[in-house]
Every structure is written in C-alpha cells, then in structure tokens.
Amino acid sequence: MQTFKGMNKTTLKDLFNSGFEHFKVSKGPNGHFLSKKCQEKLKTKLPASSYENVMAWAGDWISKLNGETEASLKAESKQTNSVTEQPASESVQAATNKPSTIIIDLCSDDDEDEETCESLDSLLDSESSLSKSPIIIHDDELGDIDLKDYADHVDGKLDLKTLKTRTIKNEIIAKRVSQTAIEGRSKARAIRSKQKAKQDKLSPDKAQDEPTTRVLSDQSKLKPNETQWITTTPHKAPKETSLRIRTYQKIKKVEQDQITTGKTHEEPKIGFHMDKSNISIKEKISITPQKTQDTATIRDTVGKAQDEPSIEVRSEHSKLKSSEHSTITTHKAPNETTKRATFDKAQEKPTILTDQSKLKPSENRITIIPQKAQDRPTIRIRSDLLLNSNIPTPFENTQLIDGPVGLPAKSPGSTSSSGNRKRKDCDTTPDNGQSCAKRPKALELLRTHPRVHLQLPAVQLLLEKVAHFADDQGNSQALTLINQLLHSLQVAEKKISPLPDRFSAGKRQFWREFLALYQGMPQLWDANHVDYRNKELRNKAYELLETKLREIQPNATRTEVGRRINIFRTNYRREQMRILKQKELGFHSDLCKPTLWFYDYMGFLLTQESFQQGRTRKVRGTATTKPKTMFEFGKDASSDPLDAVSDWPTKETIASYLPEQGVQQSEESSLLSPKIEIIEHDGEPMDTDRLTRDGDVKPEICGFNTSDYKDRNVSTNVALTVGRGSNGTDAHPALSEASEVLAKSWAVQYEEMAPTQRILARKAIADILFEGCMGNLRINRGETRSTVGNHL
DNA sequence: CAGGTCACCATCCCTCGAGT
DNA sequence: ACTCGAGGGATGGTGACCTG
Asked: What ranges does the record list as Basic residues composition bias (predicted)?
C-alpha cells in the first residue's frame, strides 16, 4: 500500500505547491519507470532537495514494483526477463530506497499541466489503500492499468486475460464518451464564436461570456478550506440562472458571499413559476452543521432571499462525523420578484464537459483537468463508476444515442426542443421545467481560474461518494442529510434542466415504440373506454410510459410523459386537419397524404371523436355537446363520416369492405387509419342517424363497443365491418370462424395474465398487428423493420 | 416549412359546504 | 340524509409563436 509516509513534509508541500501532482509510471520491457516527462516536470517545479527526495521516494516504490512484477511475470508467463535495460535516468530512481508513495494522476497528457482535486492534507492524512490509489501503471502491452488491478495481477488474483478485458472495456467506454465530447466541444466552439459579440453585450462579467456552463475553479490551489463554486451561468440574458455548489468552511463567510454575489445584473438566477399554481421555486434549503469549523457544511439553496436563486453546496470535507450535529432549514424567500431566466442558443448547447478519451480506470472518480487546447479543463469520471452507478448520468446516455452530450438532437425524428418564445422568457412557466428545456444540465464550479466543468451528475456522484463515506462511518444522520441534498439537487435539476431533448436524439424507433405502448393503453386516450375514468389504471399506464420514456430521458416524469403525448396529439390533430382541408378543397391526393412521420402511428386516435371532423371547440356558456361516438356521426347532416375523415373510406371503398366482395383493402388504406364501419345488412352504410335517434341500437347493445374493441387492440388500423341484422340487434364483427376461434384462444390466455402482463401483451399484440398491417413482418430476414422480435 | 412549445380556454369530475 | 352549486384539479383542444 503506497502512501506518502516517509516523504518529508517539506517535500510534500513543495510537491503540491508546485502544482505538480501527476505521476505516471510506465512499464517498459525492462520494468517500470517514471516517465521522462514527469521527471522533467518535477525537476523544473521542485527545489533540488525536494526533487531528490521525491525521486528517491518514487524510485523505492518502483524498485519494489519491479521486483514484484518480475517475480509474478516469471511465474505466470515464463516469458519475462529480469529488468536489465533500464535507462540510466530511470535507474536512478529505481535504485533509490525511500518510502513508498501514492500516485495521484497521470501526467501523460500534454494538455494537463495542473489541477487536482486532492488536497495535501487529505493525502497526508491518507492511509490510502491500494484500492483507493489512482496510480496508473502503463503497460506497453496492456496500456494504462489501474494500480489495484495491476497489483491483483501481480498477486496472481487477476489473470492476464481478465486484465486485458478490463482495459479494453474501459478503452471502449472512453472512446465512446470521448467522441461525443469532442463533437460537443467542436460544436460549442462554433457556437461560441458565433455569439461572442452578442454575449459580450449581454454579459458584463467577462468571466461569464462564454456560452457554456462551466466549473470555474483553480483546482491547482485547492485547499480544504477554500471555496469551490459550481455555477451554471447562462450568458445571454441579463437575467441569468445560477446553480452553485461550493465547498466552504464557515457559514458566515458563505452567507456573506451570497450577499456579495447578489448583483442581479451579473448573477445568474432562477425564476420559475408555475403557470397556474403560481408555485415558484424559491425555496432555500440549508444543511448546516452547528460546528462551523472542521465540519462538513452542505448547503443547498434554490432561490435566494436577495432575489438570486441558486443552489449552493458547501462542503469542507466529504465526510460527516457522527459526532457532528447537522441541521436542515428551509427558507422561503418572501416577496421575491421573479426574474425570468433567459437562455440563448449558446446556453442551450453546453460545452461537453467530459473528456473520456483519456479516461483511465484508475483515475479518481472525478478529476478536474485543464485542457490546453481549449483552455478548458475537463472532468473525467471513472468508467467503472459510470457502470456501477445507479445514478443516471448523461454519459451513460451518450453511449446510447447519436447526439453528443449536451447538444440538441438533430435528427429529423428528434423531439429536440427548438426553443420557444415563452420558454425564452421563462414567464409563468409550469413547474415541469418546460421553459428551461434546453438549459444546460451542468453546474459551474466557479472559483478563479481556470474554468472547469462539472455536470450535475458529477455533483451527484460526489454527493453519493460522501454518502457512501457517511454510510461507512455509520452516520445515519449525515446520510439522511446527504440524501436529502441529493434529492433536492435532483429536484432542482428537473426544474432547471428536464433534458427532454438532450438525450432524445431523434430516435424515431423509440417514439414508435412509445406510441405503440400508448396505443396499447386505451384508458389514456379512449374516452369511451371503461377505464378511461379509472385513475388508478391511468396512473399505472402513465407509469409504464414514464418508464419507457426514461430510456432516453432518465429524469422523465409523468408530466413529461403527458407533455410528449400532448405534443404528439397536437401535431397529429393538426396534420389531420390539414389533410381534411386539402381534401375539402379538392387538392390532388398527393397533397392529402400525411407528411407527419408518426402520423400512421397515431391512427388509432381516429376512433376518437375529438380527432374527427366536425368537432368544433365548445364555447363556454353554450350548450354542452356530448361527445359523439362513432355511431353518432350521421347526426349532423353536414358531416358525412365517410367524407369527414381523411382516410375514411369513400363510398367506393366501402364496397370493398362488403363481405360479399371480400374484406380486402389496400395496404395503403389500412395503414392510415382505423376503419370502423357500420354497414347495413344490405351493404349500405348504416343510418347512424336512425340508430342514435332511436336509441335502440347502441354500440353496447350491439355487443360491440368501440372502446372494448380497442381495448383488445384490434381497432387500430384494422378495417372492421359490423354487420347488422335486419332486426337491428344482431350485429357482429364480420370475422371468420377461424379468426374467432383464434381470438378466443388468445382471450383465454389473456385472461390468465396479470394486469401488468396484459398491458404489455396488448402492446406487443398491437405492435405486431401494426407491423403486419405495414407489411413488415418477416421470417428470418434479419431485418429489424418489425418490432415483433421485441415481443417474442 | 415541420415540428416543438406554451398560454389560454373548455370540459369533466370530484370535493365540500350550504340549504332543504 | 339528500340535493345543489361553487370551486378547483385534471385533461385535452386551439392558436400563436418559435427554432432549425
């Protein structure tokens, strides 16, 4: 176990004061050695005496490592030779015998010349175990390897194959994230250059003139007692948004900082308001240990009394001692003048904060590293942390979608938000975060310089780390507080950045599945459905949709689900109306075809009166118009259902539905809408007027209720012929006997399912039926046009 | 121009208090 | 105990505006 024990304090102080904290131990054919670059850096930054001390100290460890490695490799592969050809400069260190060390980070990156999150004190206090050591062993064969893994390998606990696998796995992850990061940075740079002049005008503080969110921190000089600011800084608006997390020791000083940073024209702000409920996020939560010294102080503040809403986290150390007493207080800022947060394009495209290309498995969980190229440090997060973390992070999602992190989706199928006048003003914004949909999901760690970025998930991870520590310490109180803070952060995150679009990178396939799922939940859209008023079932259905939505939007809520659905319905209705108008005007059929990509996937809504022609908006004070059922369409003489709906069968097409003429229909016609026709026994369309006027033939009476039918997911895109006996009472679907038998057999199995399984089964069946209607079902085609595979 | 978003509004349903 | 109406929440439709 390598620690700083044995290294004199003067050397340590010199080491850390020099700003040098990255070592890299490489393994060559002749054993391990400290890279030449590191040595040079050390030499230039350290006093001679300290330099010698450090090199001796490092050499001791390396010698020890070489010895272990040699023995291990001999035993394992019988192919290694003893270390013989170590360069002179390397052997200098290797030959020395000094106490062992802990290696903090890499120094291999030219872009990295400073920054570390580690503090001297914490390291001095550290009894760091190997497992906690972020030391990197660079093996020519295996690449960079976590010290612990390498030690396990040396000890024979980890075979070469596993070690390679781990390395490869981490490299893949690093590459993925890196790619998105690079794309994001490039885009962000382009955006910044475009809007630089604009931001200069709008942002009096030059430090905030970049259209990104960032973490501003002089991490190289970070001391335990110093303050870290994590601030989200929109730049365009004179009214900006601030989300701050800072480490601090003294409460009073923090409060003073809050006051001193209260310039509204400079400070970012949050000003969200519920449109109807007028709920404003102006709460202020402080978790404040009573001991102001040497205790962890975590403050989460949303909203400020001085009209400067913000979130602040103060933490001296990432630990809370059980003996420490903490309190949590909630402040409501009274009589606050709501400021509208305004966001510009630049802000909507935050700078990518991660540079995973250099991700090393052994790095600290979060390492803040400046990048020369952009003068922007990045934050690295251990890949294993991402893999093991339960917290949904953008990084995980970037692996799943096309678009880079932080950038709005570009795909035509994307539901990428595209800004909005209302949202821009953040005025009377519902508490669903809609108004700030594109606000970067990043915090800005503001200290001095350089600037580094820290995304909310990273903060969450930090907090989680603290929580683990508190848990290990058995400090349930601290754990509770931290969890509260995490929750608070997540809530704030939702309100600040619901991320509806950052992760929905235009995956039409996803939305098709989403709509199929929605279609399989008639209790949500079928006003005639027996469960339409059943809140419990509706809630369950929404929960399923919410779960589905979280595939691309980790923080999705039911509100978001409703909003998405509303968007789809709105656009579908609009498209429907457009087609109807085109048809009414007698335009060419080409002009009457839907162009909405998901139009066909929402055809099931045509069974709803609200999506059919003739429905006019009811005016308050006028007589209430009961919703018409499909069977009531004939009431209004001016609205012929056969002509009303775009894809409603014309009288000519109706003939094709007649049993004697077969039930075949063109594929095209079957695609676009459900076709529930009521046909007289003699083949003529049923006089729906008579039906409803007489009131003696209701759908329910006929034993055929549209909602029930839809409940079985058969209505969608299925041409349905309802025969009616001459006596008007024996109406049955014109199904073949074979179909009826088959349907009954399915029904038996369906009845055996649990409610949740039924929902899923309905969805699956609906999907398959739909794909079948689309002609997409295939056998062993290896194609993925059908979603059948998802259900079988 | 397609699509996303939101304010505003209509409608339905539920709750609750007043009146009978 | 029952009825009735006001108030409010939930849900959905419409139109306008916005972005890319």
From this structure: 187-196
Query: Does any domain span residue A165?
Result: no
Whether residues A51 and A147 fall in one domain: yes
Does some domain include residue A334? yes
Nucleotides of strand B within 7 Å of the protein's CB atoms: 2-14
Q: A635 CA to B9 C1', in Å?
A: 27
Question: Residue A622 class from Cβ within 10 Å (0-12 exposed, 13-18 middle, 19+ buried)?
Answer: exposed
Question: Six-digit token pair at A82?
Answer: 């003893």
**Full domain range(s) for residue A681:** 508-790
Contacts (Cβ under 8 Å, ≥6 apart) of A228: A217, A222, A245, A246, A247, A248, A445, A447
Q: Is A37 exposed, middle or buried (0-12, 13-18, 19+ CB in 10 A)?
A: middle
- Say if residue A487 is in the same domain as residue A530: no
| CA–CA separation, A717 and A602 (whole Å) | 10
Q: Look up residue A718 and give its DSSP letter.
A: -
Q: Give residue A52's pLDDT band: very low, low, confident or very high (50, 70, 90).
A: confident
Asked if A390 and A527 sit in the same domain, the reply is no
Domain edge (last residue) among A97, A123, A158: A158
Identify whether A376 is part of a domain.
Answer: yes
Mean pLDDT of A137-165: 56
Same domain, A523 and A605: yes
Can you give the pLDDT at residue A39? 75
Nearest to A763 by CA among A548, A498, A508, A490: A548
A417 CA to B2 C1' in angstroms comes to 13
Last residue in a domain, options A110, A133, A158: A158
From the CA of A536 to the C1' of B19: give the distance in Å. 34
User: What pTM value is reported for the model?
Assistant: 0.28
Listed in sequence order, the residues at least 6 apart from A620 whose beta carbon sits closer than 8 Å to its beta carbon are: none
Tell me the CA–C1' distance in angstroms for A343 and B4: 16
A610 touches strand C (CB under 7 A): yes
What are the tokens at A455? 């995304």
Nucleic strand C within 7 A of Cβ A537 = no
**Are A104 and A213 members of one domain?**
no
Residues A740 and A671 in one domain: yes
Mean pLDDT of A118-137: 36
Please identify which residue in the block is written with the tokens 């990273």.
A458
Q: Which nucleotide is nearest to A571 (CA to C1')?
A: B3
* Residues lining strand B, beta carbon within 7 angstroms: A 275, 412, 414-418, 420-423, 427-430, 432, 434-435, 437, 500-501, 533, 563-564, 566-568, 570-571, 575, 595-597, 617-622, 624-627
What is the DSSP code string of A172-208?
Answer: HHHHHHHHHHHHHHHHHHHHHHHHHHHHHHH-SSGGG
Residues 6+ away with beta carbon under 8 Å from A418: A408
In the three-class reduction of DSSP (H, G, I as helix; E, B as strand; rest coil), residue A270 is classed as coil
Per residue in A713-726, pLDDT (tens digit) is 333 333 222 233 33
d(CA A553, CA A414): 13
Residue A533 has pLDDT above 60, yes or no: yes
Cα dist. A779→A407, A513, A772, A785, A786 in Å?
38, 20, 12, 11, 10
Residues A480 and A570 placed together within one structural domain of the fold: no
Q: Are residues A44 and A86 in the same domain?
A: yes
